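dude i think i finally got it to work??
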Amino acid sequence: MAGKLVSRLAGGLLAVVMLLIVLASTSPAFAHAALIKTDPADGAVLAEAPVQFSLTFSEPISPLVLTLVKPDGTPVPLTAFRLTDQTVEIDNPQRLKSGTHVLSWRVISADGHPVGGSLLFSIGAPSEPPVVSEAVDWPQRSAIWIGKVFLYIGLFLGVGGAFTLAWLTQGGRAGQRFVTTAILGGLIAAPLSLGLQGLDALGAPLSHLAQPVIWRTGLGTSFGWTVLVALIALGLGLLSLAGPRPIAKPFALAGLAVVGVALAASGHASAAEPQWLTRPMVFLHGVGIAFWAGALMPLGLALKGQSAEAAPFLRRFSRMILPAVAVLAVAGIVLAIIQVQTPAALVSTAYGRLLLIKLGLLVFLFTLAAVNRWKLTALAEAGATEVQRRLARSIGVEMLIVLAIFGVAAGWRFTPPPRALAIAAAQPVSVHIHAPQAMADLSITPGHAGPVVASMIIMTGDFGPLDAKEVTLVLSKPDSGIESLKRTATKPGDGSWRVDNLVIPVPGRWTVRIDILVSDFEMVKIEAPVDIRP
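look at this
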């Protein structure tokens, strides 16, 4: 009766966790790469069509889909572009008519995650902008999440379980059928996840999964390496199950190591700096999870079945689990500190909220494991039948918690870490202001509300040098009832003009005006909108 109650409670916990994952990760989709500068600027009104467009990101990216949508809604693929460092320069293939256009972009970040967006610009005068759908494709997102969970099951419960059967049992086969099934599920989930990655990268629906371009695109991302290496790990795990014990051991050990390599090949954590630290930490974290989680089902079934191998199996696992958990915990703490950075980010970001859910599950898991280790293990090793059954039930609950943790980890696929958000927030916002008499390149650092520094390069209307006598920066936001912020710029000697000690009180779209005193009798005023981030 108690066993059924525990199982029901664990099942209820799992359902609640899945709901929390959805709520915690329901936020706008971002990835590591953040768009920090565009030409033309978002919302700009131009006298004539630009020869080319440019997009500058906060980190290196690879373009996937670039599209120009005309005022009548006609999409024009943009296929001619050049990638220089973090900037994509895109050729405009045709003469554009008056009205509002949309430049839609989708790129892949260094961690293998796609990110997309769009900007508006008008030629001549603004018109009703064409409709560009940016709604979340929930069937696609759900499929990606499910694929991730089953890939984790294959790697951690399958390959990890194969290691357990080869190294911790004395020829026992309790749980072999489950481990084999987990590996086979992983062998299906791995290539399927690759196709889903291609769909997500190109923003395509599930119905396009069979198209070759989808698979080529998925394979071309860093996640492609994760899938290829994961298939090797799953194959090694399967070979270890099929071979005799002397051959099974090296195959199983190699498979366990390759699990760590697969996880370190892509993802939020492995893409973080410094990579000499983060990638080894991801490797150790993955190996630790596979060792612990992989042993649970074979051990639970051995105890439940009262087999002769159960006691020695439990004894060997008990000796090895403490150092394994220590390595797992240290690696996890290091990665969490690098990714989250500040305690406030735990509640203010979707990534942090998912981490809190995971930490809550881990506290429950560690508490349950500690009770099993210090109160039940010794009696179970001594052969106490009822204690062995109780320990088997407890291990079953641990398995449910582990599956819930897999679900949380898969949810991170759709949430950027606070580290990446902080990098994006620190980036400047830039705008090019062009008029017949003069023009300027303005940069505001950082590009969010609060204390900032503005720097300006002043030129003539034909890109020549302009020796201005005085430059004044004016920022206004009438819709928020804020009076104009007027600051006189200084010239530090590097050819630019600079405004220090400037505070932008609120985010949103501001109008920036630069007053350029060309001579004692001539003042040129140029202005443009600029978007200040929160």
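Residues 13-31 have pLDDT under 50 and may be disordered.
im so relieved honestly
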